[in-house]
Write a structure and sequence with these properties.
The chain is about 40% helix and about 15% strand. By secondary structure, the protein is an alpha/beta fold. The protein has 2 domains: about 50 residues, Orthogonal Bundle (Helicase, Ruva Protein, domain 3); about 120 residues, 3-Layer(aba) Sandwich (Dna Topoisomerase Vi A Subunit, Chain: A, domain 2), CATH 3.40.1360.10. Strands 4-3-5-6-7 form a 5-stranded mixed β-sheet. The chain has a two-stranded antiparallel sheet with strand order 1-2. Helix 1 packs across helix 2 and helix 4 crosses helix 7. It starts with 5 loop residues before the first helix and ends with a strand.
């Protein structure tokens, strides 16, 4: 059997990345072929380094090189308030607002039963461990999608019996939008206008 064309293999590898179609993948592949060897070597080394060194924070499940991450180890941040986000880009979007000075928790997904994603597939167990350690409020900042809302309600049901206040970021973020694409003013208003989800 003939060996696969290495250019085609590279194009297919790029096309597997989110948001990269076949044409963009081909452009990236030919850019690397035409570029100086140093460019390809730097890309290879950067990918290898991030795969070797980056891991999940043992407390909040953020992606980090140091464990605990910089948010969990910062004594100036308020550990009594935890903002729960779907993903690291969501965390970074909220952090860019400069409005939130608590700690974070990253789920790495949302409940999506039709896609086979249940509670055990998210980092909810780690969140529950944290709730017994002096957390007064959980701000649920999942995306305003059907799955994000379902996940928010599920988290509320987990928090209520523990006496932890559960709030949801306000609807300044449009339905169906991802947090990482929202502007800082919208996110700031959403945080400031968060609402109680019930419970204590």
């Amino acid at each position: 059997m003939a060996e696969r064309d290495p250019i085609r293999r590279l194009v297919q590898a790029f096309a597997r990345l989110p948001g990269i179609g076949e044409k963009t993948a081909a452009r990236l592949a030919f850019f690397l072929l035409d570029a100086d060897d140093r460019v390809a070597r730097e890309l290879y080394e950067a990918i290898a380094e991030v795969k070797q060194k980056i891991r999940l924070c043992s407390i909040c499940c953020n992606l980090t090189e140091a464990d605990p991450c910089r948010f969990c180890s910062d004594p100036r941040r308020d550990g009594r308030v935890v903002c729960v986000v779907e993903s690291v880009p969501g965390l970074m979007a909220i952090e860019r607002t400069g409005e939130f000075r608590g700690r974070y928790h990253v789920l790495h997904g949302v409940l999506a039963p039709l896609d086979g994603v249940g509670p055990d597939d998210l980092h909810l167990r780690e969140l529950m461990t944290r709730l017994g350690a002096g957390v007064d409020e959980v701000i649920v900042a999942t995306n305003p999608s059907v799955e994000g809302e379902a996940t928010a309600l599920y988290i509320q049901r987990l928090c209520t019996p523990l006496g932890v206040r559960t709030t949801r970021i306000a609807s300044g973020v449009p339905i169906g939008a991802d947090l990482e694409y929202a502007d800082q003013v919208t996110l700031s208003r959403a945080l400031a206008g968060r609402r109680d989800m019930g419970g204590p």
